[in-house]
């Protein structure tokens, strides 16, 4: 395949691009960042450009046989519609055989006032209406969010797992790697075009169940603490800016208000079975991560660096 990957310089799109190149497919992407500011993507051809530039998007798709798309952290409806339209027109013109759109979140059945949901719904509708052969994936929340400077030290040193979901809300946590495997399957498996899949982990876990899984993976006691969404938003703003942080946090404000408590719970593994993907159990995923980098003990950190 020759795959146009929209979002390859981000976490989810990057995982997809890496998997594609590992399997010897040609990958091309587009980034607003100057070359020196982009994350390393071995084997990926990257041009400088913006999704708002129709000609840049057209060039990205020229010669592509397939496409994998995730939208950037933009939550303005007009801009997202324009991005999706540019992608759709370029994909149709290029004769793309299949486009997989990662909504990067579950999407409620009914309209809401949450931009993080509604802009992703807009993008999905634009792509579907274009007639491009389409598969939509709607993942819940990512395990990789927890392997971060915001969560790692508290987990390793204090046994505290803090996240802005209510403790009793079940979520089908998924890793970036397993998301990439699902995208790959959606690009290649027969009979899935036109379908939407609520891909998720092996089973949905409440906060306490997730903490138990982390405890097994880390070999220590871990307790779950529901983080207030506004606190989460403040911390995220330091990394991605206040506008993007507000967009992302809208999902957690929605969940904290008690709307659709099963939204992130998945479909009992149906999507994974159709796509022939077996997501990694949370405790197994935890056990594979180098958590020692967050340890307070300098000697332990040094040993981890050397290994």
Describe the structure.
With 307 residues, the chain is α/β, with parallel strands linked by helices. The chain folds into two domains: 2-138, Rossmann fold, CATH 3.40.50.720; 143-171 and 201-266 and 279-292, UDP-galactose 4-epimerase, domain 1 (Alpha-Beta Complex). Helix content is 43%, strand content 13%. The protein contains twelve helices and nine strands. It has helices spanning 11-22, 54-61, 77-94, 115-130, 152-158, 176-188, 207-218, 229-240, 242-256, 270-274, 282-287, 298-306; strands spanning 2-6, 26-31, 44-48, 66-69, 98-102, 134-137, 160-163, 196-197, 223-226. A seven-stranded parallel sheet has the order 3-2-1-4-5-6-8, sandwiched between helices. The chain has a two-stranded parallel sheet with strand order 7-9. Strand 5 (98-102), helix 4 and strand 6 (134-137) form a beta-alpha-beta unit. Helix 2 (54-61) runs parallel beside helix 3 (77-94).
Give the strand order of the largest sheet, numbering strands 1, 2, ... along the chain: 3-2-1-4-5-6-8
**What is the top-level CATH class of the largest domain?**
Alpha Beta
- Roughly what fraction of the amino acids lie in strands? 5-15%
Low-confidence residue ranges = 298-307
Given helix and strand content, the structural type is alpha/beta
The residue fraction in helices comes out at: 40-55%
Q: What is the average of the pLDDT values?
A: 93
Shape estimate: globular
- Give a short account of the largest sheet: 7 strands, parallel
Number of strand elements: 9
Number of domains: 2
CATH homology superfamily of the largest domain: NAD(P)-binding Rossmann-like Domain
Q: Say what the CATH topology of the largest domain is.
A: Rossmann fold
Distance between the termini: 36 Å
Spatial extent as radius of gyration: 19 Å
Number of helices: 12
CATH level-two architecture of the largest domain:
3-Layer(aba) Sandwich
Spell out the helices and strands N to C. Answer: EHEEHEHEHEHEHEHEHHHHH
């Amino acid at each position: 395949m020759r795959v146009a990957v929209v979002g390859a310089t981000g976490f989810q799109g990057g995982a997809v691009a890496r998997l594609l190149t590992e399997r010897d497919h040609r990958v091309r992407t587009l980034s607003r960042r100057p070359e020196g500011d982009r994350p390393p993507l071995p084997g990926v051809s990257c041009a400088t450009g913006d999704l708002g530039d129709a000609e840049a998007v057209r060039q990205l798709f020229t010669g592509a046989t397939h496409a994998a798309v995730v939208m950037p952290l933009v939550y303005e409806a007009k801009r997202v519609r324009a991005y999706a339209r540019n992608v759709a027109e370029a994909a149709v013109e290029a004769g793309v055989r299949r486009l997989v759109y990662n909504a990067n979140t579950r999407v409620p059945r009914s309209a809401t006032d949450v931009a993080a949901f509604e802009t992703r719904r807009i993008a999905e509708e634009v792509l579907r209406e274009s007639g491009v052969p389409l598969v939509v994936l709607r993942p819940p929340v990512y395990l990789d969010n927890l392997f971060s400077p915001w969560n790692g030290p508290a987990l390793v040193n204090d046994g505290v797992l803090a996240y802005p979901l209510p403790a009793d809300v079940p979520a089908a946590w998924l890793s970036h790697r397993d998301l990439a495997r699902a995208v790959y399957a959606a690009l290649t498996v027969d009979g899935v075009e036109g379908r939407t899949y609520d891909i998720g982990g092996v089973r949905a876990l409440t906060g306490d169940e997730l903490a138990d899984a982390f405890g097994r993976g880390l070999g220590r006691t871990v307790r779950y603490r529901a983080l207030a969404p506004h606190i989460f938003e403040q911390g995220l703003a330091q990394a991605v800016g206040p506008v993007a942080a507000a967009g992302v946090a809208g999902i957690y404000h929605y969940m904290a208000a008690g709307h659709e408590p099963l939204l992130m719970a998945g479909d009992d593994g149906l999507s994974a079975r159709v796509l022939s993907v077996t997501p990694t159990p949370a405790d197994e995923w935890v056990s594979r991560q180098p958590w020692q980098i967050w340890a307070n003990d300098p000697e332990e950190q040094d040993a981890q660096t050397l290994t």
